[in-house]
Design a protein that fits this description.
The chain is mainly alpha-helical. The protein contains 26 helices and two strands. The model has no long low-confidence stretch (mean pLDDT 86).
Length: 504
Amino acid sequence: MKKMLGKLTNSKCIAALSLGIFGISMLPIWYLAFYARPSGDDYGYSALTHAAWIESHSMLEVFMAAIETVKRNYVGWNGDWFTTFLFSLMPEVFVPYSFWIVPFIMTAAVISATFYFMHEVCIKRIGMPLSDWLIYTSWLLIACYQFIPSTAIGMYWYVGATHYMLPYAAGLVGLVCVSKFLRTGRKRYLAGLTLCAFMVGGSSYFTSLLLLMFLVIAGALSFQADRKKVLWLILPFLVCLTGFIIQCKAPGNQVRGGEAFGFDLSRAVYTIYESLRRGVIIIGRWAQEKTLVFVLLFLIAAFGLESMGKTVEKYTWKYPMPLLFVIVMYGFYSAMFAPEVYSEMYDTIEISLGPETIQYFTFLVVSVMAILYCEGWICVKIKSGMQSRCLLQFLKEKYHYRILLPVVVAAGILVLLNRGWLGNCVDRRVYEYVSSGQAEDFREQIRSQMDILLDDSIKEAYLVPINPEQGPLMHMPVTTDENAFTNRVVRDFYGKKKVVMTEP
């Protein structure tokens, strides 16, 4: 029995199982990618580039059209100049029915960046074995994607995912580059960081704040040890800050937020206070709605104590000031509320689920960091104590059976008793949407619309009504009002005189 339990609790077996479960959990999400379609802003930002491609089939002309799109929106709507450039390169600019690739690109970017980030933290910084890195990253990503606040923002809406998820992925890579540069001094990591800073600075207020805060803190902590490296970090800091300021100063922000939109000190102070307060409230809400997420964090804590117990035997890092570290992690997380809180003070700005998605992903990452850091501090204290050898021996040999297994069983019981998590699970929602026939119905109706929209002989397009049930997908349907936003952007993208939905 003990031999069997030893195999089941072997970290390599758990890592393989965790990675397999994560991969399987993503299959329904990727399967639904073949039903996804462009929507609303996807067409609006891509009208000029699509026209350039149709007329010339020249990438140079397309890029010029993309720059023109950036100029128009910078003056007339929003300041995120880098992602606006990407918005205009939506796949169907070049190939009809190619939108299915978007969810694969968006998930691949975030998944790769998360594994890269966790590899730097778990293996290069903490010194964990490869299997532990795979376990914690797999569980983290399961929590991210199965309970993501918005599947549209996360995967199925090109503009939304490009605006929030790609900068988030670039931000994680940037954090890794900071760590690697400070650790090795190699200039290629500085170059990678500067590139990430350029992309993030022109893309997202949220990730810009995260990267700028991290650069300041990392620079302050490393200044005494290696001033030369820290001084080099000024370059990517200025690149990111410049891009951020260019975003903030965009004339389009006043068009979108009203003439009163701008920086105000009292509003900035309120934003900081409200962000710190709201962060706690949202965690409480997630604890009620996303039970399995906190079970996974609990399991990471249970497994993490054993992992950190192994590492402190080999490394001398002391994990100082754990309370301050937790406060800093909370500061990173709560900073993700600042752009949303500030925007809410202007009635003309609508808030999507994009901010909550970034807040949620950031919360999970900083939670894992805080858990592992605090457990490292605990293990260091154990190591330096009178009974250090006995306690560390307990973590190495008996922790699996006396602590870890009961914790896993308790977690399983908790999940079974509270089955509400299953209804909110993304895989469950995808299954219900596909098995009900609604997904196929949606695809057939879209195909009938595309037959009309792609027919150059038809200049006034009258489209059949779309299934209003879109499940996890994102779709803004054309309406019976030919002057409605969606009607206009679809009209411009396909070069029609008029696009309108027929009466049902």
